[in-house]
């Protein structure tokens, strides 16, 4: 199977996440996408971050009836950095091919990620354009290195076995929805989702992190 990996806080997940995922599935001819709900992002403040269970449940609600599986595999692996998580996923699921999906807002700061070149060498990267971040993404140190590995979209999904480093850019009508706006309009959203631990849709294990309390 060819699987896209979309990591994020999903604090909370919303229709914008679903829309860009379905677009990526169609554009890249993917079998499915795994939403990797992060236990924590070292580049984001912990204040205002809902519990992993609440964020996971919000992602499950948005992923219904779509080729999307929600996973907290990063918490299960105990890998604090994306480069370590991706290496562990490739070891556990060698039968699949993976592509890392991220927005242009993440590309703009990609050079701050731990061993970001290692991420690029681990699997192809598909960058989804986000309004307001294009200039920063194009001018970023990571893009200066990745530019020589860019391929057109048509050439990406018609290749045989995927190789890395490879960068492909996806463009579609921008979606104005954001988790920040949702939190502002509905600050108690997570309280409605604090329930029994959900079950991971990839590993089938219960999502019970060591410390699952709101910041």
Automatic annotation (TrEMBL):
Its EC number is 2.7.7.18. It catalyses: nicotinate beta-D-ribonucleotide + ATP + H(+) = deamido-NAD(+) + diphosphate. It comes from the Bacteria. The keyword Repeat does not apply. Pfam families: CTP_transf_like (PF01467). Residues 5-184 form the Cytidyltransferase-like domain. It is an enzyme of class 2 (transferase). GO terms for molecular function: nicotinate-nucleotide adenylyltransferase activity. Pathway: Cofactor biosynthesis; NAD(+) biosynthesis; deamido-NAD(+) from nicotinate D-ribonucleotide: step 1/1. Keywords: ATP-binding, NAD, Nucleotide-binding, Nucleotidyltransferase, Pyridine nucleotide biosynthesis, Transferase. Catalyzes the reversible adenylation of nicotinate mononucleotide (NaMN) to nicotinic acid adenine dinucleotide (NaAD). Belongs to the NadD family. NCBIfam families: PRK00071.2-2. This is Probable nicotinate-nucleotide adenylyltransferase. It comes from Parerythrobacter lacustris.
